[in-house]
UniProtKB/TrEMBL annotation:
InterPro entries to which the protein is assigned, alphabetical: AA_ABC_transptr_permease_3TM (IPR010065), ArtM/GltK/GlnP/TcyL/YhdX-like (IPR043429), MetI-like (IPR000515), MetI-like_sf (IPR035906), Solute-binding_3/MltF_N (IPR001638)
Membrane topology, as annotated: Multi-pass membrane protein
Entry keyword set: Amino-acid transport, Cell membrane, Membrane, Transmembrane, Transmembrane helix, Transport
Organism for this UniProt entry: Dermacoccus barathri
Subcellular locations according to the entry: Cell membrane
Protein name: ABC transporter permease subunit
Stretches assigned to the ABC transmembrane type-1 domain: 293-485
Coiled-coil stretches noted in the UniProt entry, renumbered to this chain: none
Keyword Transcription belongs to the record: no
Family, similarity comment: Belongs to the binding-protein-dependent transport system permease family.
Transmembrane intervals: 301-323, 335-356, 464-484
Keyword Transmembrane helix: yes
SMART domains membership: PBPb
Amino acid sequence: MGVRAYSRRVRMADRDGLGALRARGIFVALLSFVAAILFAGAAAPAAHAAESDQLPKTLRVGTEGVYPPFSFHKGGELTGYDVDYFREVGKRLGVKVQFVETPWDSMFAGLNSGRIDIIANQVTKNEERIAQYDLSSPYVTTTGVVVTKKSDNSVKKLADLKGKKSAQNITSDWANTAKGAGANIVSVEGMDKAAALVEQGRADAFVNDELAVKYYLATHPNSDLKIALTTEDKSESVFTARKDTNITPAVSKVIDQMEADGTSKKLYDKYFTTKATGQSTWDVIKENFGSMLLATVKVTIPLTAVAFVVGLVLALGVALARLSSNAAISWLARAFISIFRGTPLLVQLFIIFFGLPELGLKLNPWISAGIALSLNVAAYAAEIIRSAILSVPNGQWEAAETIGMSRPTALKRIVLPQASRVAVPPLSNTLISLVKDTSLAATIGVTEVFHQSQIAAAPTGKFLGLYITAALIYWVLCFVLSIVQTRLEDRLGRHVAR
């Protein structure tokens, strides 16, 4: 073989070797890349699972249920942007989500007392909340708007709110915006009620989230309201948890995922680019009447019955203690009556539901309402029973003693049967008042008939029709009770000499 031919073969072998080396390098690089992807894919779920292990198996999520389009009811089901968003968050975290419907002004009290784990209700990020709570990454960003009647052209800048009445949730960030502009705040429970006050001329304006207002105007085409101006502040909505619960870091990672894969945009488009159609008042009543009746049967009536029976038993004990010759026992009974008759039932409800958890006693909403109502009934009924017992002539006691009856036996067989006839009318009034007082349980999340009407009215604005429907249901209950009262009085007075 010639030198030239040999050199050519060597060069070809070198090229083949270099090609083989390059191919091998590319193959190794591809294997490394695939391995890195597989490792990252395996590591991410592992890290995700580790985070999920630190979370409660069930996350209790506080939301209003009456703030469309973020949290409201449609067809009897809780829905809305915040609701659907957090359902997806819970799904990706691998935890069960339990929504706890709570009025906005009670929301942070519920969070602080441990009754809810996190709030999903358009909570605006601000310095005060950063200091007090753990906040997630923002999941939607919007701005504020000032809303007035269409005929009102006096508000052209935020400073024009000075001296005007602005209807606001007093604990919301928008209330601070209105107050900072010099407005006089008119307290309301929700934006739907703020809109109603402005339309009725009982308030001049309100400040709220641009997205919520635009949804309201789109779903209320006959509204007499307009957006007067857009505020300069940017509102970042966040999910809010108690400090050091390690919930929001995991939630924030899911928010980033949902932003990256387009899920956030799909939810946004679902609620903020589609216009809903309004319903007639009659259609809304027909749609919600069944749920209102169900709430009456499942909540209002049982809550009334339990509170009245328990309250009556307590009342008898307190009345007898009040009549006791023992000064200490009588004084304790007087103190009980004074405290529970002298403080508002609503305050008592809040102390039991939101206050007692600070002492380590956490009761569910239904039981909390039952206790508060029972104690309130006991305080009023105790004085009714005491006065009824005193109305029985002393001669009855003396006659019982003459035939050898002990005082407890005389009380049971002689005095109380006569006193019951006197006590029936005022005790019946207490029962009728109790039926209506159950509506206050809505403030701590008990879905009784009135709260059901509020849920239906929030997205539709049909306040008059739905509230009248609720009032009719209460009236029917009270009317039936008044018939029972009349028949009971007739029965007890049948053998009484006149």
